[in-house]
Amino acid sequence: GGGGAGRPPPPRGGGGAAPPPPPTERSPQPPGAKRPLRRTKRLGLRRYGAQAREPGGLWVRCLEDREWHSEVMDIADFWFDPSCPYTWLTSRWLLQVREVRPVEVRWHLMSLSVLNEGRDDDPEGDPEGYLWVPVRVCAAALREHGQEALGRLYTALWTTGTGDWLGDLRTALATAGLPVELAEAGMSTAYDGDVRASHAEGMALIGGDHVGTPIVAVTRGEGERVVFFGPVVSRLPTGEQAGRLWDGTLLVAGTPGFHELKGRPHEEPQIEGPHRG
Predict the structure, then answer these.
(1) What pLDDT sits at residue 27?
(2) Strands, E, within 11-124: which ranges?
(3) Cis-peptide, bond into residue 269, ω within 30° of zero
(4) Which of 45, 67, 121, 187 is the most exposed place for a label (fewest CB within 10 A)?
């Protein structure tokens, strides 16, 4: 690569000059960069060396031609009920994907309590309505403090406990850097409208109430949108394994006329150890 204004970004975590701005109409690519890298020729980030992320884009250095390429980020909008352990593992999978694919994750709420309203049975075994509590607290965090705060709280809810379910709400809020008073929202209906509206938005994207949590809506760099339920995993895929699952899920879910694919019967979710982080 050349020097001066067109100098490519340093490897992620390294020193040197700051990365160039992400490619936009007002910010052309530096000399020698190829924009965008055609997805039909993508080999996966396992074939790339250094990375440098910018808002809305990702710079990667290809190991084949030693050139710096720029890619537009895919946006993964993730609807989740914070109480579901399988959904927790799927959310951690998305964070793994973010490390090996050009993906930005955005957090949204849905509710198993809302999903199961009016049913004769109670698939969640929650006659007291306890599942309303964590999702209300998350809705309060989202409304009062924004997307990043919701993501921090979701992580804290599952990483501050010692068992196989959520930790203490106040401890999680404090760990996430949020006011512990937000825990009071769990016993209030003040944020129920937010929960219901977000839930309805996710359900509308997938076309009905035939699925549960999570729902993922992916907006590709080319503008294509792929929406799916799941994937349901009992063990956390990491690294390039997570990336391959991402690639395959988008391939299958983005196929016109595709509706359903199932694997083996469910195992208990393995959420201890590094899966909590």
Answers:
(1) 38
(2) 48-54, 57-62, 68-72, 74-80, 103-109
(3) no
(4) 121
Rounded CA gap, 140 and 184, in Å? 10
Helix H or strand E encompassing 217: strand 215-219
Locate 217 and state its tokens. 């809506």
Is 97 or 116 the better-scoring residue by pLDDT? 97
**Span 224-247, pLDDT tens digits:** 899 999 999 999 999 999 999 999
- Token pair in block for residue 74: 């895919």
C-alpha span between 140 and 148 (Å, rounded): 13
Report the phi/psi class of residue 224: left, alpha or beta, with left for phi > 0 and alpha for psi in -120 to 50: beta
175-to-120, 139, 159, 191, 214 alpha-carbon distances in Å: 39, 17, 9, 22, 24
List, in sequence order, every residue forming a beta bridge with 109; answer none if it has no partner: 80
Collapsing DSSP to helix, strand or coil, 10 comes out as: coil
Token reading at 169 = 């709400």
Q: Do residues 83 and 134 lie in contact, with contact meaning Cβ atoms separated by under 8 Å?
A: yes
CA distance 65 to 42: 13
pLDDT digits (tens, 9 = 90+) for 118-132: 666 666 666 666 899
Question: CB of 58 within 8 A of CB of 73?
Answer: yes
pTM of the entire predicted model: 0.74
Residue-level pLDDT at 68:
63
Contact status, residue 195 vs residue 202, Cβ threshold 8 Å: no
| Strand ranges, E, within 73-207 | 74-80, 103-109
Task: Give the span between the Cα atoms of 225 and 121, in whole angstroms.
Answer: 34
Contacts of the segment 203-211: beta carbons below 8 A, 24+ positions apart: 203/110, 209/115
Residue 73: its pLDDT value, please?
A: 78
Alpha carbons 226 and 219: distance in angstroms, whole number: 7
